[in-house]
Design goal:
Blueprint: H1 2-28, E1 50-54, H2 59-68, E2 75-79, H3 84-89, E3 97-101, E4 107-112, H4 114-151
Parallel strand pairs: 1-2
Antiparallel strand pairs: 1-3, 3-4
Helix pairs in contact: 2-4
Amino acid sequence: MIVRIAIVVAIVAVLMIGWMLITASRRLRPSVASVKVSPAALGRATIPDAILFSTPYCVPCSRIIAKIDGSGVDLATVSIDRRLELVRVHEIRTSPTVLILDIDGHIDTRLVGTDAEQWAIDVRRRGQAADRDKRSTTALSDRSTESLGQAK
């Protein structure tokens, strides 16, 4: 009976020590969000609006790129299999992963999988809505100019 209690106490002690070590290491490691993205690390001169971590065989990644193309969003694409140092620094676990950056290059939002794809769809819709607004504003401006010209 005493041996069983000693074994249980030893197991609980080992689990407690392991848990304390894991939580301590998490506190000592800087948050991924606090890591500043360097344009030079991406091979760029400026900080992009977002970074897409992808693989050559990632179908959702291709759809994200197609949706973002022409939207005005500066998207940097990083190949997971070629830039392992960036994958490790930013703790990328799957593709697609999109990191949306603030103006200083700090990570503002992390989107993974379908969330990343939905973000691209939303960006595309906002871009199309802005284009419609711009066209309608231009058309209204043209009409008002024409009507002013006729009034003279």
